[in-house]
Structure prediction request, 327 residues.
Amino acid sequence: MDSRDDKVIIGDRTFSSRLLVGTGKYSSSAAMLSAMENSGCEIVTVALRRVDMDNPNDNILSHINRTKYLLLPNTSGARDAEEAVRLARIARAAGCEPWVKLEITPEPYHLIPDPIETLKATQILVKDGFTVLPYINADPILAKHLQEAGAATVMPLGSPIGTNRGLRTKDQIAIIIEQAVVPVIVDAGLGAPSHAAEAMEMGADAVLVNTALAVASNPGLMAAAFRKGVEAGREAYLAGLGRQSDRAEASSPLTGFLRDGS
Amino acid sequence: MEIIVNGKPINISAETVYDLLIKLEIDPSEVVVVRNLEVVPKKTQQFEGLRHGDRIEIIHFVGGG
Prediction:
């Protein structure tokens, strides 16, 4: 299979890149842009905040080429469905496409998303015409409910946001992938290209990375490394990984000629 | 007239949302305004009158994951 034919469909759009990039925490816009460019991503997430009255015209959108990247506003900061729905509508009023990464985290220490409020908000926003990408804990039953509610993807976390601890929820994500009818995007906690590759080898459709790129001493180089990790994992998944075995199975023929009778 | 802008009370004379943004030196095309929890569509900013006690949120995009 030619990898150029391997696309992922989210909502009504088709993407070649399976790596989504977050725009938070970079030390400079140049670092952010270099990560975006080298990642090959087509979707970038952004957040909404109050304008800082002391520096009112510092706008991230002035740096992002919106013909090249689809802006995916998140609802970070929302603690319940009502706040998330309001944020999604504000983003749409700001001129974004009606796409939203739904993120509802009522407690700031672990930033674990609230499943009940996320399902509620998904139902409301789908009815309102949004393409909804909900960020969730890796709960297979919740993922099913969200699919039924019309979510365009499910985005289970590998480990809590910003922790770089990798795929701690691997067994649950495997179940989510097995039963998914929408793309599964592993979001949060992926700290190394090997984590991204691992998610893709399992059959995840895409991954979203932010902190691992933003905190690297060279975000552009790290983004290039993640791109390769995602592509390697995807190709390995398509190629079909060998099964694991408890005992050794020789890869060279064991035909004896050094000893008689073997 | 006193209004609350991004959580802080300010005294300002501004007739409309658009007027307020100009007086605060904010480019109206770069932000979204929420007045008393209702989004003010960009095209009606110039007609949306302000009243004493209004709660105004001026919001824009920032980096996020």
